[in-house]
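Suppose you are handed a protein chain with no further information: no name, no annotation, nothing but its sequence. What can you learn? This example shows the usual starting point.
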Amino acid sequence: MLPTLERSKIDELDAITITSPDYRATVLLQGAQLIHFSTPNDPDNWLWVSEKAEYKTGDSVRGGVPICWPVFGQLDANPQAVKDSFADCRFDLKQHGFARNQIFNVDLFNPLHLNRRLDHYSSLTLSLPELKGFHPKLGLQVKFLFGAESFSIALTTINHSKETVHFSQALHTYLPTGDIEKTTIRGLDQVTYSDALDNWITKTQQGDVTFSEGVDRIYHAAPTIIVDEPRISLPHLASKGSNSTVVWNPWHTKAHEISQFAADDYKKMLCVETANAHLDTVSLTPGESHELSVEIMHLPF
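A reasonable first move is to predict its three-dimensional structure. Written in C-alpha cells, the prediction is:
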C-alpha cells in the first residue's frame, strides 16, 4: 500500500498527515512545521511537542521542528551583513525570522516505492508563497522525505534579488527525553562553541554534552550527533549545508519565561538545531541557492 495524504485541522491550523504501513508524519502548513513522526517499531513521537502547545494562527507551535528563517535568533545579535540585508524588510525579524508564522503552499506529494529497501518512502514539498513587500526577494522551499527508518528535512533558499543577500537560519529540532539529567550528546567533544548564557564567550567542549543547568550554545561545527537518553533507541542527527549546531535547554530558571511551556517541560526535552547561526551565516549572490538539511534516524543501543 502506497503512502496516503490526508488534510485536517488542528484547532486553527491546517495540517497534512502522511500515513503508510512503515511510518506516520504530520506537518503543519503554517511554518512548514513537522510536529509528529513515528514508526511501528518506534511508535512514540520522535519529536517533542509541549502539552501546552497552542495551534493558533500567527503563533509558532512549541515543539516539533520550527523553521527559523531568514534570521536565527535576535536580528540585532546577527552579524552586520545580515542586519544590512534586511534593513528594509517590513516583516518581523526580531526573533527567529518570520517563516514559522507564514502559510506555505503544497507543491508536491510523491509516494515512492523502493523495492530494494522493501519499504515505502514519500516526499512532501512545500514552498513559501511570494510575499508582497518582502525585500530582499528570497524564495524558500521545504522538502520532507519520510521512510521506515528515518526522515529528513531540507530547506532550499533561492536569491531572486539583484544583490548579494546574507542570512541565518535553523531547523529548530525539539527532541524528547525521559530525563534531561541522564541525557548526553555525543559528537561534539573538542568542538568550540559560543556560550549565549556567558556573554558569548568562546569555549571548548570537553567530552559529551551533559545537562545540569540551562544550556544555550552555538557549536562551531555540524558533525553527526548522537543523543543518548533514557528511551528505547538512540537518535542520530546528520546535517548538511551547516557549519553550526545549536544545543538548548532552558532549565527551570528560564522555563517560566517561555510561552506554551510547562514549568517542568525542561525535564522532558532538548533542542539540537541544524543551523547557520551566529558567526556562521550564508551569503547568496543573485540567482544562487543554498540547501540546509538534517536527517534523523533512530538506531538501537
